[in-house]
Amino acid sequence: MVEHLKHHLGVSDELERMVALFKALGDVNRVRIILALSQTTLSVTELTEVLDLSQSSISHQLSILKQRNLVKGTRSGKNIHYSLADQHIMSVVGLVKEHVAENEKKND
């Protein structure tokens, strides 16, 4: 069993990509952006209003999320409207939210 695990748990490109995704989710403002985009498509200007962050901060966070294929932008005239790249990310975020809520109940 140990040899089997040793063989399958080595560092791989897939594992590195998984860690990069978790790192992208490791920032409160990026998670806030994902939660906002789970409700509707939004422009950078709209995200600044909703999240009360600067335009440069929003743009920086969106750049990181785009690099990890978590969000995508669609041009509409002069604006780009952002949305989630797919619904897989909300499955991950939903599971984490359930886990946190479950642990809070245990600690009450």
**CATH superfamily (homologous) name:** Winged helix-like DNA-binding domain superfamily/Winged helix DNA-binding domain
* Helix proportion: 55-70%
CATH architecture: Orthogonal Bundle
Strand content of the residues, in percent? Answer: 5-15%
**Helix and strand string, N-terminal first?**
HHHEHHEEH
Oligomer: single chain
Strand order of the largest sheet: 1-3-2
User: What is the fold named in CATH at topology level?
Assistant: Arc Repressor Mutant, subunit A
CA distance, first residue to last residue = 39 Å
Structure in words:
This protein is of the alpha+beta class. The protein has a single domain, classed as Arc Repressor Mutant, subunit A. The chain is 65% helix and 13% strand. It is built from six helices and three strands. A three-stranded antiparallel β-sheet has the order 1-3-2. The longest helix has 20 residues, at 88-107. The radius of gyration is 17 Å and the shape is globular. The protein starts with a helix and ends with a helix. InterPro entries: ArsR-like_HTH, HTH_ArsR_DNA-bd_dom, Metal_resp_trans_reg, WH-like_DNA-bd_sf, WH_DNA-bd_sf. It holds the Pfam family HTH_5. This is HTH arsR-type domain-containing protein.
Characteristics of this structure?
alpha+beta; 13% strand
Task: Briefly characterize the structure.
The protein is of the alpha+beta class and 108 residues long. Helix content is 65%, strand content 13%.
